[in-house]
Design a protein that fits this description.
Structural class: mainly alpha
Radius of gyration: 19 Å
Order of helices and strands: HHHHHHEE
Mean pLDDT: 77
Strand order of the largest sheet: 1-2
Low-confidence stretches: 132-148
Helix content: 40-55%
Shape: globular
Length: 148
């Protein structure tokens, strides 16, 4: 049995909300210092334009989503309780466990939604516990669509 890349989060954490706020402030200050350099800002702006184009087209890699949100691999690693190298490996994988993908998306502030399209009908899929806590989406019935 293979070990999941993203371990389950520890319920007991030693970090306080103040520590998270301080870390966020330090990251923002570091970003500000780096972007004060004209060449770094130009490279950053070009990368962000590319990411925004991909997000606008609703196509993005996990790394592009993370960057668009403004998170580093180290920040993701800290949030997910794993090493930075594991985040890098995760972002390059072609096949992910759905729970792993859900945790990654939630760590970036999103919500994983899996759907299937049948003609013009889109059906949200409930797979295991992935969407069990979200009762806001419509559950499809056989009268909603027909399979041919």
């Amino acid at each position: 049995m293979t070990k999941p890349i993203i371990p389950e989060p520890d319920v007991d954490t030693d970090r306080t909300s103040e520590e998270y706020a301080n870390a966020a402030s330090r990251v923002a200050q570091a970003r500000e210092r780096v972007l004060s350099d004209a060449s770094a800002k130009a490279a950053h702006d070009a990368l962000m334009a590319r990411i925004e184009d991909r997000l606008a087209a609703k196509h993005a890699t996990l790394a592009e989503v993370r960057r668009a949100i403004g998170l580093t691999q180290n920040q993701m690693a800290d949030t997910l309780g794993m090493a930075q190298g594991d985040v890098s490996k995760l972002e390059r994988r072609n096949n992910l466990n759905l729970t792993t993908l859900r945790r990654f998306i939630e760590a970036t502030g999103g919500r994983l939604r899996i759907s299937a399209t049948y003609g013009t009908t889109e059906v949200d899929l409930y797979i295991g516990d992935l969407l069990a806590s979200d009762n806001t989406t419509k559950t499809a019935t056989t009268s909603d669509f027909s399979l041919r």
